[in-house]
Amino acid sequence: MTLPVRIAVNGATGRMGRAVLDLARADARFALRAAVIAAGAEQVGAPVAGVDAPGALRYAAGWGEAPGLDVVVDFSTPAGLAAALDHCEAHGVALVAGTTGLDAALERRLQQAGARIAVVHAANFSLGVAVLTRALREAAAALPGWDLEIIEAHHNRKEDAPSGTALALGRAAAAARGMTLEAEAVYAREGRPGARRTGSIGFAAVRGGDIVGEHTALLAGAGERLELVHRATDRAIFARGALAAAAWLAGRAVGVYTLDDVLAM
Ligand code: NAD
Protein backbone atom coordinates (compact mmCIF):
# COMPACT_ATOMS: atom_id res chain seq x y z
CA MET A 1 0.00 0.00 0.00
CA THR A 2 1.35 3.42 -0.93
CA LEU A 3 1.14 6.11 1.72
CA PRO A 4 -0.76 8.11 2.62
CA VAL A 5 -3.81 5.88 3.08
CA ARG A 6 -6.89 7.64 1.64
CA ILE A 7 -9.59 7.52 4.31
CA ALA A 8 -13.18 8.62 4.84
CA VAL A 9 -14.70 9.09 8.31
CA ASN A 10 -18.33 8.03 8.63
CA GLY A 11 -20.20 9.76 11.47
CA ALA A 12 -17.67 12.60 11.26
CA THR A 13 -19.47 15.13 13.51
CA GLY A 14 -20.10 12.61 16.31
CA ARG A 15 -18.10 12.27 19.52
CA MET A 16 -16.00 9.46 18.01
CA GLY A 17 -15.91 10.90 14.48
CA ARG A 18 -14.41 14.14 15.77
CA ALA A 19 -11.77 12.24 17.75
CA VAL A 20 -10.82 10.27 14.60
CA LEU A 21 -10.69 13.44 12.47
CA ASP A 22 -8.45 15.23 14.99
CA LEU A 23 -5.93 12.38 15.08
CA ALA A 24 -6.05 11.60 11.35
CA ARG A 25 -5.42 15.20 10.33
CA ALA A 26 -2.22 15.25 12.41
CA ASP A 27 -1.01 11.85 11.14
CA ALA A 28 1.09 11.71 7.95
CA ARG A 29 -0.01 8.09 7.32
CA PHE A 30 -3.47 9.33 6.28
CA ALA A 31 -5.05 11.61 3.68
CA LEU A 32 -8.57 12.57 4.75
CA ARG A 33 -10.74 12.42 1.63
CA ALA A 34 -14.33 12.40 2.90
CA ALA A 35 -16.34 13.15 6.07
CA VAL A 36 -19.83 11.65 5.93
CA ILE A 37 -22.68 12.50 8.32
CA ALA A 38 -26.44 12.03 8.56
CA ALA A 39 -28.49 13.42 5.68
CA GLY A 40 -30.34 16.47 6.98
CA ALA A 41 -27.74 17.27 9.66
CA GLU A 42 -27.11 21.01 9.91
CA GLN A 43 -23.36 20.64 9.24
CA VAL A 44 -23.86 19.11 5.73
CA GLY A 45 -21.86 21.28 3.29
CA ALA A 46 -19.89 23.04 6.05
CA PRO A 47 -16.07 22.91 5.81
CA VAL A 48 -14.59 20.13 7.95
CA ALA A 49 -11.62 22.24 9.09
CA GLY A 50 -13.89 25.19 9.88
CA VAL A 51 -12.17 27.43 7.29
CA ASP A 52 -14.33 28.17 4.26
CA ALA A 53 -11.84 28.12 1.35
CA PRO A 54 -12.45 26.98 -2.26
CA GLY A 55 -11.73 23.25 -2.52
CA ALA A 56 -11.99 22.76 1.27
CA LEU A 57 -13.21 19.31 2.36
CA ARG A 58 -16.88 19.55 3.37
CA TYR A 59 -19.21 17.31 5.38
CA ALA A 60 -21.18 15.11 2.98
CA ALA A 61 -24.62 13.54 3.38
CA GLY A 62 -24.03 10.07 1.99
CA TRP A 63 -21.61 8.44 -0.43
CA GLY A 64 -22.84 9.67 -3.83
CA GLU A 65 -19.93 12.07 -4.37
CA ALA A 66 -17.24 10.11 -2.52
CA PRO A 67 -13.77 10.17 -4.16
CA GLY A 68 -11.37 7.18 -4.48
CA LEU A 69 -10.72 5.68 -1.04
CA ASP A 70 -8.63 2.97 0.58
CA VAL A 71 -10.42 2.69 3.96
CA VAL A 72 -13.65 3.93 5.57
CA VAL A 73 -13.49 4.43 9.35
CA ASP A 74 -17.03 4.17 10.73
CA PHE A 75 -18.42 5.35 14.09
CA SER A 76 -22.00 6.29 13.20
CA THR A 77 -25.30 4.42 13.56
CA PRO A 78 -26.43 1.02 12.28
CA ALA A 79 -28.11 2.74 9.28
CA GLY A 80 -24.95 4.79 8.69
CA LEU A 81 -22.80 1.66 8.84
CA ALA A 82 -25.11 -0.17 6.39
CA ALA A 83 -24.76 2.68 3.87
CA ALA A 84 -20.96 2.73 4.29
CA LEU A 85 -20.90 -1.04 3.78
CA ASP A 86 -22.84 -0.65 0.50
CA HIS A 87 -20.25 1.86 -0.72
CA CYS A 88 -17.25 -0.22 0.40
CA GLU A 89 -18.55 -3.39 -1.23
CA ALA A 90 -19.44 -1.60 -4.48
CA HIS A 91 -16.00 0.05 -4.76
CA GLY A 92 -13.66 -2.47 -3.10
CA VAL A 93 -12.87 -0.18 -0.15
CA ALA A 94 -11.71 -1.63 3.21
CA LEU A 95 -13.83 -0.91 6.29
CA VAL A 96 -13.04 -0.30 9.97
CA ALA A 97 -16.43 -0.77 11.64
CA GLY A 98 -16.83 0.68 15.15
CA THR A 99 -20.59 1.27 15.37
CA THR A 100 -22.34 -0.85 18.02
CA GLY A 101 -25.95 -1.92 18.55
CA LEU A 102 -26.13 -3.83 15.23
CA ASP A 103 -29.02 -6.25 14.74
CA ALA A 104 -28.37 -9.87 13.73
CA ALA A 105 -28.98 -9.14 10.02
CA LEU A 106 -26.37 -6.35 9.91
CA GLU A 107 -23.89 -8.46 11.90
CA ARG A 108 -24.36 -11.19 9.29
CA ARG A 109 -23.92 -8.73 6.39
CA LEU A 110 -20.66 -7.53 7.91
CA GLN A 111 -19.36 -11.10 8.18
CA GLN A 112 -20.44 -11.87 4.61
CA ALA A 113 -18.77 -8.68 3.32
CA GLY A 114 -15.48 -10.33 4.28
CA ALA A 115 -15.76 -12.40 1.08
CA ARG A 116 -15.35 -9.21 -0.99
CA ILE A 117 -13.56 -6.60 1.14
CA ALA A 118 -11.21 -6.39 4.13
CA VAL A 119 -13.06 -5.53 7.36
CA VAL A 120 -11.95 -4.94 10.96
CA HIS A 121 -14.93 -5.09 13.29
CA ALA A 122 -14.58 -4.36 17.01
CA ALA A 123 -17.07 -3.19 19.63
CA ASN A 124 -14.15 -1.60 21.44
CA PHE A 125 -10.92 -0.38 19.85
CA SER A 126 -8.99 0.04 23.11
CA LEU A 127 -5.89 -2.01 23.82
CA GLY A 128 -6.87 -2.28 27.51
CA VAL A 129 -10.21 -3.89 26.65
CA ALA A 130 -8.49 -6.33 24.30
CA VAL A 131 -6.33 -7.46 27.25
CA LEU A 132 -9.33 -7.43 29.64
CA THR A 133 -11.11 -9.81 27.23
CA ARG A 134 -8.18 -12.20 27.34
CA ALA A 135 -8.00 -12.05 31.14
CA LEU A 136 -11.75 -12.69 31.42
CA ARG A 137 -11.55 -15.71 29.11
CA GLU A 138 -8.91 -17.20 31.37
CA ALA A 139 -10.76 -16.35 34.61
CA ALA A 140 -14.12 -17.66 33.35
CA ALA A 141 -12.57 -20.97 32.34
CA ALA A 142 -10.52 -21.33 35.54
CA LEU A 143 -13.51 -20.51 37.81
CA PRO A 144 -16.36 -22.33 36.07
CA GLY A 145 -18.68 -22.43 39.12
CA TRP A 146 -18.42 -18.69 39.91
CA ASP A 147 -21.29 -16.35 39.08
CA LEU A 148 -20.40 -13.84 36.33
CA GLU A 149 -21.96 -10.39 36.10
CA ILE A 150 -20.94 -7.73 33.58
CA ILE A 151 -21.58 -4.13 34.59
CA GLU A 152 -21.06 -1.25 32.16
CA ALA A 153 -21.41 2.53 32.48
CA HIS A 154 -21.67 5.11 29.67
CA HIS A 155 -22.71 8.72 29.02
CA ASN A 156 -26.35 9.70 29.02
CA ARG A 157 -26.65 9.89 25.22
CA LYS A 158 -25.69 6.31 24.45
CA GLU A 159 -28.57 4.67 22.60
CA ASP A 160 -27.86 0.93 22.84
CA ALA A 161 -27.68 -1.25 25.98
CA PRO A 162 -25.93 -3.31 27.09
CA SER A 163 -22.88 -1.87 25.32
CA GLY A 164 -21.36 -3.78 22.42
CA THR A 165 -18.27 -4.23 24.57
CA ALA A 166 -20.27 -5.78 27.43
CA LEU A 167 -21.85 -8.21 24.97
CA ALA A 168 -18.46 -9.07 23.47
CA LEU A 169 -17.08 -9.73 26.99
CA GLY A 170 -20.07 -11.96 27.76
CA ARG A 171 -19.63 -13.84 24.51
CA ALA A 172 -15.92 -14.41 25.18
CA ALA A 173 -16.60 -15.69 28.73
CA ALA A 174 -19.44 -17.95 27.61
CA ALA A 175 -17.26 -19.46 24.86
CA ALA A 176 -14.43 -20.01 27.38
CA ARG A 177 -16.91 -22.09 29.43
CA GLY A 178 -18.14 -24.02 26.38
CA MET A 179 -21.49 -22.20 26.44
CA THR A 180 -23.21 -19.58 24.28
CA LEU A 181 -24.23 -16.10 25.34
CA GLU A 182 -27.64 -16.60 23.74
CA ALA A 183 -28.38 -19.44 26.19
CA GLU A 184 -26.84 -17.83 29.31
CA ALA A 185 -27.51 -14.08 29.15
CA VAL A 186 -29.85 -12.36 31.63
CA TYR A 187 -30.43 -8.77 30.55
CA ALA A 188 -32.99 -7.56 33.10
CA ARG A 189 -34.10 -8.29 36.66
CA GLU A 190 -37.18 -6.71 38.17
CA GLY A 191 -39.82 -7.65 40.72
CA ARG A 192 -39.21 -11.25 41.77
CA PRO A 193 -37.05 -12.86 39.09
CA GLY A 194 -36.18 -15.66 41.51
CA ALA A 195 -32.79 -17.04 42.51
CA ARG A 196 -29.88 -16.65 40.16
CA ARG A 197 -29.59 -19.51 37.66
CA THR A 198 -26.20 -21.26 37.87
CA GLY A 199 -24.09 -20.57 34.80
CA SER A 200 -26.08 -17.51 33.72
CA ILE A 201 -24.29 -14.29 32.77
CA GLY A 202 -26.00 -11.16 34.09
CA PHE A 203 -25.73 -7.67 32.59
CA ALA A 204 -26.32 -4.26 34.15
CA ALA A 205 -26.14 -0.92 32.33
CA VAL A 206 -25.55 2.44 34.04
CA ARG A 207 -26.16 5.66 32.05
CA GLY A 208 -25.15 9.13 33.19
CA GLY A 209 -23.26 12.36 32.52
CA ASP A 210 -20.23 12.19 30.27
CA ILE A 211 -18.86 8.76 31.28
CA VAL A 212 -16.69 7.67 28.33
CA GLY A 213 -16.99 3.94 29.05
CA GLU A 214 -16.43 1.58 32.00
CA HIS A 215 -16.68 -2.22 32.06
CA THR A 216 -16.48 -4.52 35.07
CA ALA A 217 -16.50 -8.30 34.87
CA LEU A 218 -17.40 -9.50 38.37
CA LEU A 219 -16.82 -13.16 39.20
CA ALA A 220 -18.39 -14.06 42.54
CA GLY A 221 -17.55 -17.31 44.33
CA ALA A 222 -18.22 -18.48 47.89
CA GLY A 223 -16.34 -16.20 50.28
CA GLU A 224 -14.37 -14.37 47.59
CA ARG A 225 -14.78 -12.44 44.38
CA LEU A 226 -12.69 -11.23 41.50
CA GLU A 227 -13.33 -7.97 39.62
CA LEU A 228 -11.71 -7.10 36.31
CA VAL A 229 -12.27 -3.43 35.53
CA HIS A 230 -11.48 -1.20 32.56
CA ARG A 231 -12.13 2.55 32.61
CA ALA A 232 -11.79 4.72 29.54
CA THR A 233 -11.31 8.39 30.36
CA ASP A 234 -10.57 9.69 26.85
CA ARG A 235 -12.27 8.51 23.65
CA ALA A 236 -9.03 9.21 21.77
CA ILE A 237 -8.03 5.65 22.78
CA PHE A 238 -10.77 4.23 20.52
CA ALA A 239 -9.84 6.63 17.71
CA ARG A 240 -6.17 5.63 17.98
CA GLY A 241 -7.07 1.93 17.84
CA ALA A 242 -9.36 2.47 14.86
CA LEU A 243 -6.65 4.37 12.97
CA ALA A 244 -4.11 1.66 13.81
CA ALA A 245 -6.62 -0.78 12.28
CA ALA A 246 -7.05 1.46 9.20
CA ALA A 247 -3.29 1.63 8.58
CA TRP A 248 -2.99 -2.15 9.08
CA LEU A 249 -5.99 -2.91 6.83
CA ALA A 250 -5.01 -0.82 3.82
CA GLY A 251 -4.07 -3.16 0.98
CA ARG A 252 -4.70 -6.34 3.03
CA ALA A 253 -6.43 -9.45 1.62
CA VAL A 254 -10.23 -9.63 1.91
CA GLY A 255 -11.65 -11.10 5.13
CA VAL A 256 -13.08 -10.13 8.51
CA TYR A 257 -10.35 -9.36 11.05
CA THR A 258 -10.41 -8.61 14.79
CA LEU A 259 -8.46 -6.14 16.90
CA ASP A 260 -6.37 -9.09 18.11
CA ASP A 261 -5.24 -9.58 14.49
CA VAL A 262 -4.27 -5.90 14.24
CA LEU A 263 -2.39 -5.88 17.53
CA ALA A 264 -0.97 -9.38 16.85
CA MET A 265 -1.01 -10.02 20.59
P1 NAD B 1 -22.70 10.32 18.12
O1 NAD B 1 -24.18 10.26 18.28
O2 NAD B 1 -21.91 11.37 18.85
O3 NAD B 1 -22.35 10.50 16.55
C1 NAD B 1 -23.01 9.81 15.53
C2 NAD B 1 -22.56 10.36 14.18
O4 NAD B 1 -23.14 9.54 13.17
C3 NAD B 1 -22.97 11.80 13.88
O5 NAD B 1 -21.91 12.45 13.19
C4 NAD B 1 -24.16 11.62 12.91
O6 NAD B 1 -24.29 12.70 12.00
C5 NAD B 1 -23.70 10.37 12.18
N1 NAD B 1 -24.76 9.67 11.47
C6 NAD B 1 -26.04 9.40 11.85
N2 NAD B 1 -26.68 8.74 10.88
C7 NAD B 1 -25.79 8.60 9.86
C8 NAD B 1 -25.87 8.03 8.57
N3 NAD B 1 -27.01 7.45 8.12
N4 NAD B 1 -24.76 8.07 7.79
C9 NAD B 1 -23.61 8.64 8.23
N5 NAD B 1 -23.48 9.21 9.44
C10 NAD B 1 -24.56 9.18 10.24
O7 NAD B 1 -22.16 8.85 18.48
P2 NAD B 1 -20.70 8.41 19.03
O8 NAD B 1 -20.65 8.53 20.52
O9 NAD B 1 -19.63 9.06 18.22
O10 NAD B 1 -20.76 6.84 18.72
C11 NAD B 1 -21.00 6.34 17.41
C12 NAD B 1 -21.02 4.82 17.45
O11 NAD B 1 -19.73 4.32 17.81
C13 NAD B 1 -21.99 4.23 18.50
O12 NAD B 1 -22.56 3.06 17.96
C14 NAD B 1 -21.08 3.90 19.67
O13 NAD B 1 -21.59 2.89 20.49
C15 NAD B 1 -19.86 3.44 18.90
N6 NAD B 1 -18.60 3.46 19.67
C16 NAD B 1 -17.74 2.45 19.39
C17 NAD B 1 -16.49 2.43 20.00
C18 NAD B 1 -15.51 1.33 19.61
O14 NAD B 1 -14.38 1.35 20.13
N7 NAD B 1 -15.88 0.41 18.73
C19 NAD B 1 -16.12 3.43 20.91
C20 NAD B 1 -17.04 4.45 21.17
C21 NAD B 1 -18.28 4.47 20.53
Question: How would you sum up this structure in a few lines?
Answer:
With 265 residues, the protein is an alpha/beta fold. Helices cover 33% and strands 25% of the residues.
Explain this structure to me?
The chain is of the alpha/beta class. It has 2 domains: 5-121 and 235-263, NAD(P)-binding Rossmann-like Domain (Rossmann fold); 127-232, 2-Layer Sandwich (Dihydrodipicolinate Reductase, domain 2). Helix content is 33%, strand content 25%. The chain contains 8 helices and 12 strands. Strands 3-2-1-4-5-6-12 form a 7-stranded parallel β-sheet, with helices on both faces. Strands 8-9-7-10-11 form a 5-stranded mixed β-sheet. α1 links the parallel β1 and β2. The longest helix has 16 residues, at 127-142. It is elongated. The two termini are 23 Å apart. Nicotinamide-adenine-dinucleotide (NAD) is lined by residues 10-17, 36-38, 41, 75-77, 79-80, 83, 98-101, 122-125, 238.
